[in-house]
């Protein structure tokens, strides 16, 4: 009888181990479900997918176009602020505003038109830095995090432009095309999520805010490591768009409301970051990501 029982275990063992091996792990189950969601999103977005790069580029630069228009329409107020509060000498204030308006307008048009993207992105990055110094906002944490995200969107524009080119732009290290694109896509992904970090630590806490923050932080982490990055980017686009409409609804404020300009500024900055996320959805996370490594292994 002991021999028979031993034979029964001998036959049952491998079958039991095979069944256990075939059971998906929790991570595999998540991958299966997110893959199904990604396939559904791809099907849903198929009609607009050819236009995503153009939409993303426009949204990224819309904050610069709005800022240029605001400087022109509020020229005297801008000069007064720079002279009286920033103590910038007369004349330099005019030059500072004029150079910013020209740089933002020309560079934004070039980004939309996909012309000289390297120089256009460089011009807009210079505007971000000079405005932070000129307006004295470089030590404002919320402003700093938002502008890091805008820079991330601009880096996504740069990597998107290199998809269509085979030569290295002047002034950049001569590294392989795919390596350059990989590093800039990774840097763009990392910088894009800083806006959400600022959102988490700003404002009053509530149950809804905690839930949105948890979902958003998970999505941000997935974007950074490049795991299901497209699906995570779509989730962040939805969260930021809803937040933008509900919180930064400047069109509901009185024309002379003191917070109107701030709400408008925040609204268009978030649109720029949404544009960067749309480029991420279109291009994918790049080679420096978990999604790409899975294809290799």
Query: What sort of overall outline do the alpha carbons produce when their principal axes are compared?
Result: globular
* Rounded average pLDDT: 77
* Main beta-sheet annotation: none
Helix-and-strand structural type: mainly alpha
CA distance, first residue to last residue: 48 Å
Number of strands: 0
Write the element-wise H/E pattern from the N-terminal end onward: HHHHHHHHHHHHH
Oligomer: single chain
Strand portion, in percent? under 5%
Helix coverage percent of residues? over 70%
Radius of gyration computed on alpha carbons: 24 Å
Q: What this model shows, in words?
A:
By secondary structure, the chain is mostly helical. The chain is 77% helix and 0% strand. The longest helix is centred in the C-terminal third of the chain and has 24 residues, at 260-283. The chain is globular, with a radius of gyration of 24 Å. Residues 1-21 have low confidence and may be disordered.
